[in-house]
Structures are given as C-alpha cells and as structure tokens.
Design a protein that fits this description.
eight-stranded antiparallel β-barrel; rod-shaped; single chain; five-stranded antiparallel sheet; Immunoglobulin-like; about 40% strand; mainly beta
C-alpha cells in the first residue's frame, strides 16, 4: 500500500495546527483507552518511546481488532487502523488496513500507519506481537522498514511493557454434575469491579456445538431451564468490566448431564401361579435399550438380578421360585447419554406356594375305605394341606366337599376309615398353604376312585380333528362301547400333560369345539370315558397345531 506525498503533507500540516491550537483531542479523540495508566510504553532503538495511552489519544483493544493512536515523540502519531468491517480489518487495500487480534490466542496481525515512518507490521517474517488473554500484557516485536523493531516488553536494563486492562477471571464456576428435569442453577465466583458476566453453554466440551451465549448477567448465578434430556451441557463464564477487556473464560470442570427420561410406567402382575409372566413398561423416546432389575425385597437389597440390553419394552420372566414376591424397576439407556432414573413398579409379583407335585388316588375300591396320598410341596415351610372331594371330574361347587382343610404338612396323606357310599366315583384334589402367602393351586388326582370298582370302562376310539372352524377347530372321538358313560377331554401344551393342563370338555357328547388358541402352538389332547361305580377308562390321545 502507498500513501501520496501530498496526502502526507496535508496531514502533517493538520497535525501541527491542531497541536499548536490546544492538542489533538478534538481531532483524534476516540473511545476511552483500555491501556494501563502505568504500563503503556513500547521501545524502538531508532525512534525511542512509543506511548499507547497519551493524553491526547490512546489505543482501544477489542476482541478482534485494535483501534486508536500511539504517540512517539520522534515520529509523531501512529494510527492502528482505518475502519474495521465486521470486527476486523481486511488489510487488502489502502482503505481497509489495521491491526487485528485473534480473540482466542491474542496474536496480532496486520498493519499500523505513520505519516512519518510508513507501515508497521505486527505479524512479520521475524515474529509477531501477542496480547495475553489472561494478563493483558503485550509481548513480541512489531517491524517497520524505516525504524526497525518495536519491542513491547523488557525487564533489564530498563523495565517496561504495554498492558491492556483485563477484568479478572472468575475464580470458579460451579455446575451440577447431573439434573433430572433440565432445570438447574449455574454459579460462579464474583470478580471485583465487574459490571456484568457472559455465560456460554454448549453441548460439546470444546464449545463447537450447540453454543448459546447469555450476556449482561448482573449477578453470579444463572438459572438454566428447559434443557433436553439425554444431553450433557458444558459451561464457561467471563467477567466484563468497564474500560477493560473481558476476562478469559473460566470453564467448569464438568458438564451437567440431563439424563434420559425415565419410563413413565412399569407394569408387573400382582401374582402368578407358575413363576412365568411378563413385565412391561412405557417406551422412552430415543432410548437404545433398557435395564430391568429384579429383587426379592422392595428396597432392592436382596436377591437382586440385573437384565441389561433389553431392546423392547417387555421382558418375559421365567423360573421364579414359588412362595416368593419379586419386585421390579426399569431404566432407559441412550447412546452417549446418562441412563435415566429408575422407574419402580408399585407392586411386586407374588409367586404363591407350589402345589404338591403329584397325587395318588386308587382307581377303585370295593368297600369305600381307601387312602389318598400326595407328594410334598416344593415350597419350604408349608404348614397345611387342604383336601377336597367331588363326584364330578370338574369339581363343580355343588358336588365338591372339603374333606379336611388343616392336614399337617408332615402327613401328606388321608385315610378314609368310614366307607364312601357305593356306586359312585370320587375325585380328589389337594392344595398347599403357607402362612403369609397365597395358597397354591390345586393338584388333581389323575383319576377318580370307583366304589365299588370292579368293572373297567372301555376307552373311546381314535381322536381326530375336523377342518378348522372360524378361529379354531373341533376335536372328535369315537364312542366307547360301554353304555352310560360320559367323557372328559383334557388339553395341554406338552405330550406328558404336565404343562398348561386344563379340562376342555366334560359330558356325553363325542366332540368339542376349541377356539382362541395361540397360533403356531402345538396342543395335545386326551379323552377318556367315566362312569359312576366303575373304573375310568384309559386315555386316548391326539395332537393338533393351532393355525
């Protein structure tokens, strides 16, 4: 860049006139200087002292550029910039030159101008000038082709430096490590003389993403609200002081984690007979998986089991011990976010006392005096057994009688010393009881006892299945050759008839319609003929897969 001799002469004359008529304040007055009152001189071996805060001028340091005038007794005024555009000087033409500043590192660049010595470079091949962001001290060398190096700091033999006033950095910044609802307070230490503070928030620790700036905070606390769940927020604060550069940033040592929202609900059955049941919960937006915890105490201090990495919102529990109550809580997991808090079910699931594993009933007895026995319940601490009798296989209320409801757990049998009335078949079932727990389900005898029972009923013929009806199918069997019989049809989900066993039909018919079965599940069926006063027939079996 080049300035004409004519322009130089005109400006020199103007400076001289202004100086003679009361100084330069009216012509070159700028915003109050931010340079220290005491540390304001740089040195040039060829031109002597340069004053960055003279009485009739001065330098202002902004975040991204410098402005104003430096006075040197031997070379006159040095101007630090023309007109900054968008906070910096372009330094590409004779009308957009000036000294820029890197707001992060404090390194200066660009040019100043003197009518008497020409251009002065602040970032040249041999070095540059830096303003410390924390202390405001200038360091390094500027370069002029006409007067050589300008040195900004020295300790011996003469101590001098240029320093801009800088607000002190807040000594601390306190941010909570986590917050459940995204509303929390950020606070910092006060700075003497600070007029306000600037707080910055970001979603990355280097403040490159999601940055938000809150300026003009008068106090030392800012109440944050509305922060999104599943996100970590980082904070830094700086002090603002009149006639001083802003302080450096004080960054909090931790971010505030706003965890993933907890599932809104968790549903656990109140009880379950066989220890196989489903626990479900409400979905959480953005969750990648869930963690379910199970325990045998409501404070989760005993018998705890953790199931992590559950992708869906249902967990199928199996194999839970009878006579135990199980408690559940669930939390959501999101990648790169803090897990949610626990959502605890309002109730536990009681798996009641287990029934006796088997029950033995004689198929017939001539005089009606016989003994029924059963195996012990697997549940420890059973106190009593309850024995019931019925003259129907289905134990309808009108035909069912409690034989004894407090048979001691050590007994596991009952003997009829008084004969049962003849010409009837008697069916039996037993359940276990334990103090403080729900009774077990009933264990039915596999057969009734016919009194007297010398005749054996002939079994039904083959079991067959018709074409599917709407939502089901029909089970058929061939009529027994024994006159006067009725039939009992049972269903199970395994061939041993130990799982999912239930009575589908009881009566004199030769078929039963089955609906509502789970698709792609195989069901097993068996049918037998029964007759009062006679021994039940053998079972006739068949298999069908629900579609």
């Amino acid at each position: 860049m080049k300035i004409s001799v004519a322009r130089f002469c005109r400006r020199g004359a103007l400076v001289l006139l202004l100086w003679l008529f009361g100084g330069l304040s009216s012509a070159f007055a700028v915003q109050s200087g931010l340079i220290s009152d005491t540390n304001k001189h740089a040195w040039s071996e060829n031109s002597g002292w340069l004053n960055f805060k003279p009485a009739d001028g001065g330098v202002t340091v902004y975040d991204t550029y410098l402005a104003g005038y430096v006075w040197a007794a031997n070379v006159g005024w040095i101007k630090l910039g023309s007109t900054a555009t968008n906070g910096t000087y372009g330094n590409t033409t004779s009308s957009n030159w000036g000294v820029n500043r890197n707001a992060t590192t404090g390194v200066l660049s660009g040019y100043a101008w003197s009518e008497n010595v020409g251009w002065i470079s602040f970032n040249h091949d041999q070095g540059h000038v830096t303003i410390s962001p924390s202390t405001g001290d200038f360091s390094g060398y500027a370069w002029s082709a006409n007067i050589g190096y300008i040195h900004f700091a020295n300790t011996a033999p003469v101590s001098y430096k240029v320093q801009v006033n800088v607000a002190a950095m807040p000594a601390s910044l306190t941010v909570p490590a986590s917050d459940a609802d995204g509303a929390y307070a950020v606070s910092w230490a006060a700075v003497s003389g600070a007029s306000s503070y600037v707080l910055e928030e970001a979603t990355k620790s280097d403040f490159s993403t999601g940055k938000r700036t809150i300026a003009g905070i008068a106090g030392i606390t800012y109440n944050v609200t509305g922060r999104a769940t599943g996100t970590t927020y980082y904070y830094r604060v700086k002090a603002v002081k009149v006639n001083a550069m802003d302080s450096g940033w004080r960054t909090a040592i931790n971010g505030c984690v706003v965890p993933v929202a907890s599932p809104a609900s968790i549903t656990v059955p109140v009880s379950d007979d066989d220890g196989v049941y489903a626990v479900t919960w409400a979905a959480v937006s953005g969750a990648s998986s869930y963690v379910l915890e199970e325990a045998t105490k409501s404070d989760f201090s005993t018998g705890k089991r953790t199931i992590a990495g559950i992708a869906g919102i249902t967990y199928n529990v199996t194999g839970r011990a009878t006579g135990t109550t199980y408690y559940y809580r669930v939390k959501a997991v999101k990648i790169s976010a803090m897990d949610s808090g626990w959502r605890t079910a309002i109730n536990g699931c009681v798996v009641p006392v287990a029934p006796p594993a088997s029950m033995t009933v004689p198929v017939s007895d001539a005089d009606g005096k016989f003994t029924i026995s059963w195996t012990a319940s697997p549940t420890a601490g059973v106190t009593y057994y309850v024995l019931e009798q019925s003259t129907t296989y289905t134990f309808t209320p009108t035909t069912t009688t409690v034989i004894k409801n407090n048979i001691l757990a050590t007994t596991k049998s009952y003997a009829f010393t008084t004969a049962r009335p003849t010409a009837k078949t008697y069916y039996y079932r037993v359940k276990a009881k334990k103090t403080g727990l729900a009774d077990s389900v009933y264990r039915n005898g596999a057969n009734g006892c016919a009194v007297p029972g010398t005749a054996l009923v002939v079994a039904p013929g083959a079991v067959t299945f018709t074409l599917p009806i709407l939502h089901g199918y029909t089970v058929n069997w061939v009529k027994s050759t024994t006159v006067g019989v009725t039939y009992v049809l049972e269903e199970a989900t395994n061939s041993l008839f130990t799982v999912g066993l239930r009575t589908v039909y009881s009566g004199a018919g030769l078929s039963a319609k089955v609906t509502g079965r789970t698709t792609n599940t195989t069901y097993y069926y068996r049918v037998r003929a029964v007759k009062a006063g006679a021994k039940d027939s053998a079972w006739k079996t068949g298999t069908r897969k629900a579609t």
